[in-house]
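Worked example

This section walks through a single chain of length 116. The input is the sequence exactly as stored; nothing has been trimmed or padded.
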Amino acid sequence: MTLQLKRVYLPPDDTDGRRILVDRLWPRGLSKATAKIDLWIKDIAPSNELRKWFAHESEKWPEFRKRYAAELRQMPEVVAQLRAELRKGHATLLFGAHNETENNAVALREYLQKHS
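Given that input, the structure is written out below as tokens.
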């Protein structure tokens, strides 16, 4: 499975396909009209506790990925909802983090690819 990932703050593009926000919180300072999000699956995001623990600290990245995968295993219905959306065609998972290589969307894509 090939999934495109993109910061939600970048302008929408024709190559995005379905734009799916996978953050628990709405992106600060971004209007719904500007974001052009097709679907917001906030329940697939890491728990508030895990998100706060991680705090985008690179040294916690490996452990964050493990803990987030464990959370995803506990919510098969939400993962199934995302998979059903992805089967509809090209999609982009949107995230708000500044770090484009260590964030929940990257970990989510990795989980989906390993557990397809």
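What to look for: The chain has a mean pLDDT of 96.
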